[in-house]
Amino acid sequence: MRLLRAALDKLYDACAWAAALMMVGTLIMVILGMVDRYVSMNFRGTDMYAGYFMAAAGFLALAHTLKKNEHIRVTLILNAVPAGAKKTMELWSLIAAVLLAGLFAYYSVRLAYQSWDFHDISTGNDATPLWIPQIAMAVGTLVLLLAFVDEFVLELTGRRQSASAEEALHNE
Predict the structure, then answer these.
(1) Which of 54, 119, 136, 147 would you label with 18, given CA atoms 20 to 30 Å apart?
(2) What is the pLDDT of residues 47-58, one digit of tens each?
(3) Which residues contact 154 (CB under 8 A, 6 or more apart)?
(4) Residue 50 CB partners (closer than 8 Å, separation 6+)
């Protein structure tokens, strides 16, 4: 069990590092676009690639953000109910999250596959095959689904670490 926990944590961290690299990619594309305006080096599609990198960063960071308790949570009701009801509400919300993340992952993978199958390309001047940037979305949603299943199992077994009310007050 400890080995599985370590592997999952490494997966979430790897996705966070990949998201950080995508943010660096966004920065590089923006800088190249700015340089191109002044020097005319003909860097094609830098605005499109910046968007691809930014979307990839957002999707790849989802699971890590969830596991670090950084997603926005509405705890007003949870803090006002007894412990038994709180656990029931947490389980219900995690079941809903697993189902929604499952749908999100399914349709993200399906979209990337269909883009590959139909040879769909960007309408911008970069003409990038769209399945390439969509892979990051598919991977990010699959890892998010895994993270929600992980949270559900931890909640069922009583090992889930959730943010306290005091912690939520200190976030900026």
Answers:
(1) 119
(2) 999 999 999 999
(3) 160, 161
(4) 25, 26, 29, 30, 33
Our count of domains for the chain comes to 1
Domain around 45: 2-169
Distance CA 73, CA 83 (A): 17
- Residue 129 sits at φ, ψ, to 5 deg, of -60, 125
Tell me the C-alpha distance between 23 and 169, whole Å. Answer: 28
- Which tokens belong to 24? 């660096």
**Where does residue 166 rank: exposed (0-12), middle (13-18), buried (19+ CB within 10 A)?**
exposed
Give tens-digit pLDDT for 89-105: 999 999 999 999 999 99
Q: Which two tokens stand for residue 49?
A: 């690639």
Provide the H-helix boundaries in the chain: 2-39, 46-67, 83-117, 131-157, 165-169
Listed in sequence order, the residues at least 6 apart from 91 whose beta carbon sits closer than 8 Å to its beta carbon are: 152, 155, 156
